[in-house]
């Protein structure tokens, strides 16, 4: 394999294009552009361009209140669809609301309050047509567990409730601020892998908590992690109630079966959508008939009739719990925002309409702030109920209004009916709902594509089930960011070779036909160059040169020119500039030529400003393409194409 | 400017090169490669390749004890040079050692102890030939201020000393571990801009602290920030001692003058190098002669004669101060490491020899660990003394041994002479030494090249002088990393156009001659694609398409093909892969073709693994160059070259 092919090229025909500096723009203009890309990448003012004043006012009002957009064209046919979907999600929202409130260690009725006011607020402000708003499992779990670490919900229920509403207020404030300050990209730091691992872990933690209800245990542990919960379950084996277990098992099987049917045949969505309410009704009737509460089956008990009482006087804006509620607010705010935005975007993509992330954040945030003053806790768009809403044919946010009205009727007139509802059926409903959060095919897909992402997933998963919900999340986010930083600290440098018969240069490790050019070491740096990687790049490039020289010594072909292809270098800082200066000096000492290819605008500008001696910017150092650099510098040499070094 | 040029091209001649996937490598091999690039970018085992066992042993011993490398060839001529440079840095090290120990709130003699044992250890283990080892100003300042926040050095001097030695031990342990675990790149996160701002701020803080000595104030504030210090200075105006001020002023002028001479004429380095010792001698004689201690001039007082006492029994490895000493150790460890490594690299580059960063870290770390057991506090290579060492012609680490012996002689026999040395002259020595840390030309250069880096510099500077030394540093590092993360969250996408008459495609904003091709939107994504920027990229690309379509509507030329040039995309994760799937679906709905150009190895592999439907990998979607994509897809169209859109 040592044969060296030698090709003659007519070097006279080489036309070399000049590398120019980009058109001058002032620092202010650059700052403006960068701020625009950072905060307004979606260009929200685009639609206002070239409109009359009146049009602008109408568009502005529609921008802030999307209800004004669809309301004027709202017709009876749409209303029919929204009635159906609204009633469907109400039949889910009522049992789930009660269940999730219990998950958050709150009185069950707070779950219904939270399914009444917030959906009405969202209907006015929200721009998604499919979002079904209300309490969700993960935010409920996190809210409940974070607050319970400090305050006991059984010993001090009023304080606990106050802290829950205060956390909801701060969650809403945080969400609305993110949207208002256009910092929505913060939720982008929750990568898909993190979320999948986190949700699967949370689903397991939530399900384990339900063992209390499903087994009829009365003295259950207050901890959340898997080990203390399981040990608590087996230490209280004498408390297990066979009546409760039997009932729980039956309803769990029924619910899982209907869920399976609903998933296999989307047209039968109403089977799985109606099953929870049906279970509640049947189980309530059974308990009432057999007086189950006397046979070890625990029931919800008496619920207060009537609409949401005001709760602004319960909010804590000072005192020793302020830090706790702000922290809880931020964590639950981010989690519920992530779910709400992801759900909104998913269904918007399916129906091909746009959802403005920052606007949605303001809507969800305001909804929670209003909610916190009307006895509601953290709400957002629920993934499972939104899917049902979509399948049931919802057309606009009117379905949320229909749902809210149904909940209102329930609150006003039907509360006594829930008195005998057994807690065990609520546990079965929660388990059925959260089981869908465990997405094994997606986890497998991630394993297949990117092992490191899968590691992040595992960290989130095991962190959540073995340590705690918040810590698992924090660990996973930390690792994700560390990975990105590592990519920057250790950027790839690859050696390019010529694809014979073309002017194309590609990585010699990737394209086996690419031939390195004798006397030329052509390197491509595939990352922005900055303080974090300058030292590494200096070492790595000198190793490339050493390798080339050792290899060359064997073949008796010496290195003459080092070419750095800067096309992929998207940014540079002052430390990066010094890399070129140092390299240029070091290579000059070795008698090697040093050539830069295709610096992009920003890099070019900074090179110019830093290079007072015009050492890097003189002609013969900068080229527009690798091909032109090689062609121009090898004018006196023949191309020699050895096997790839 | 609305003229549209139309060029016919013979599309039949278009040869299209296949995009292939890179050769298969197992996950294990990839992991091995990545670990190697992360931890062994300098390939330290290279020299052992192909050697005999005996050679390997010798090389190995030389690797761990660089003294074995130069000692065998050490000659008398080298020794002559080292004697001169060693005595020169000793004349600096003695007064500076005493001064810096006072800066760290430690007994002056600890500064001399620290200039005796650590340089001997470094001479055996260190690979730099120019480093002059001993206490330095910034680490002394930070050590003293961090410990003083918790323990008073005047009320509890023994405990304070114990904590200082313990912190030194942990600093050394941390430094050696960084080197041993090959995590040296952590210090790369201190960017040049951060360091310049930080050092200038620290210099001002240190100088302000000297006002106590220079003005003869006895009740000085214990805070470090600029405002409390200045207010303390003016509130104690009645304590100012004119004798002290006069003496301080004279010596300060003298020292600054000699410093100026030494900087202007490097050959006269001995003028500035000898000045501090001369000042100490003269001022001591004056105080002794006029009995200055009775005229308000404070003096060092009696110093203990003899060599370093052992101090391993003073180290705290448990107890309530453990957290404090570990934290102080890490912060001072990083700072002193940064200074030592930077100094070593600077002079190695000047004399054209290699300094292995990780090896140096182990050397400096072990030096501090040994130091902490022999009554020495944090030491490293001092920038100013190393420069003097270099100018005085040092050849090897022997100059450190000469210096250590000189300090030893001083400790054994000359200590009583320092009894009458006035504190004011120590203050003047410190001010003269740290004033060199304020590098205004470098700051100006950074302002010129990169405004954001300058902002980082300002944050470090003002953070240090107004808040605290550690917080200023933390803020600056935080902002540097945030900048890098922002670059990732908001990567650049640029539109490419064809440079007429070539197959070259470049940014149309940068190269005014580049023409966009009618019907083609050619975008280049200039960053790795990952979870943090997928949402942004989706929005940004759809805005490009909208812009193009609006522009095109005016010109009645419709968009047909969207080309994504992936050459600069150096990495991708699972979220990034979904971007292509989503884009492909969305563009298909719009009836647009979607084409990818030149995915590099890793991207190609992940695309293949994720793309089960072969939708993205089918022929006609992947091209090796933009030119081939355009040529191949426009086979039925004429090139239309409008003005750049």
Automatic annotation (TrEMBL), chains A, B:
Residues 510-633 form the STAS domain. PROSITE patterns: SLC26A (PS01130), STAS (PS50801). It is found in: Membrane. It comes from the Eukaryota. It is a multi-pass membrane protein. The keyword Transmembrane applies. Keywords: Membrane, Transmembrane, Transmembrane helix, Transport. The chain crosses the membrane at residues 106-125, 158-177, 183-206, 240-257, 269-290, 321-343, 401-418, 424-447, 454-482. GO terms for biological process: transmembrane transport. Gene3D superfamilies: STAS domain. GO terms for cellular component: plasma membrane. GO terms for molecular function: secondary active sulfate transmembrane transporter activity; transmembrane transporter activity. PANTHER family: SULFATE TRANSPORTER. This is Sulfate/bicarbonate/oxalate exchanger and transporter sat-1. The lineage of its organism: Eukaryota, Viridiplantae, Streptophyta, Embryophyta, Tracheophyta.
